[in-house]
Specification:
Blueprint: H1 21-38, H2 44-61, H3 66-76, H4 80-102, E1 104-105, E2 108-109, E3 117-118, H5 119-135, H6 139-147, H7 151-175, E4 179-180, H8 185-189, H9 191-212, H10 226-231, H11 236-254, H12 262-274, H13 288-295, H14 302-321, H15 332-351, H16 356-365, H17 369-391
Antiparallel strand pairs: 1-2, 3-4
Length: 396
Amino acid sequence: MPPALDLTLATAPLPRRAIQRWPLVVGLLAAALGALRVAQDGWRPPLLWLVGIALGLALYHASFGFASGYRRMFVERDMRGVQAQLLQLALTTLLFAPVLAGGSVFGQDVGGAWAPVGVSVVVGAFLFGIGMQLAGGCGSGTLYTAGGGNLRMLMVLGAACAGSFWASLHLGWWQRLPSHDAVVLGDALGWPLATAVQLAVLGLLAWLLRRLARPTPAARSRVRDWRSVLAGPWPIIAGAILLALGNLATLAIAGHPWSITWAFTLWGAKGATLLGWQPASSAFWQDGWPREVLAGGVLADTTSMMDLALMLGALCAASLAGRFAPTARMPWRSVAAALLGGLAIGYGARIAYGCNIGAFVSGVASGSLHGWLWIAAALPGTWLGIRLRRRFGLAD
């Protein structure tokens, strides 16, 4: 019989450390000031700001990483991280289905993460798979580890912004490659049947992973008292549940699912304008919604606002855990891998209509076929990226 997988795993048991007061004060103060600023634009932005902070806390305390989960699956046949992702997907699918079927919630029109199925998705997801292994994090992983004090991941974030902006300049060419309009299973099959089919596929994948898994030590992480709630670590199953609920809250408040990497594109474009780039030189940036967003403030963009809140949530989580300890000492090969990986993450996410969150989780949960195509292309890229990691002296 295959081993039963322990989804309570988050990290190996860690010794408790004292709360780091000054980083925590900075994080809480920035969170409060940000909430006051976005509250000027109505009641929805501050709610999304709080959702972003909660997502950062959950990602950090549960160590919910997509890149590390895939790497453990390929290298060690440790399936727990990927099974937690499947649980997150199943819960998000169940939560999304009635909302998307109704078309609105609490008076807010809603739409799913629906995107075309085409060559650009395959190429972009493959590049993203390579990049997240070289970088050591996916889109959400880059944000929460950078917010938690990892200076290397700040370099990854900067490179991802550059890569995503670079891809936006080529987006017209990629969109002219063969593709098909978005295929939404809820529209094709009806939402009840589409949801049942998708849950059955996720269940089958979970069963296959269990069959293929290698026995692993039972390193458990339980929330025992209030100190564990504040300082973590949290069980990974708790992270999966909280991320699914946070995605639903984003859909209900913002009208669209949780996404990450559009902010990278916008931040890269704003940085380029500071260096003298003219938006009128790009077809993508000179008209319509991209032009309006680029002209506005960063906090006026929902994805940017939530990404920044996520990083602040991770900063508070790291401070509560006593693990906010930035270090600037990095081998040059690690720096090179961070920069190359970040470029691949940013470029790949832009042409693939999102990352592991916006394209895969939110796309699949929305019943969009492009989400399944994304992961089918990202996994081979991940396999190659793991092998390239070793060339840069990075551990498995």
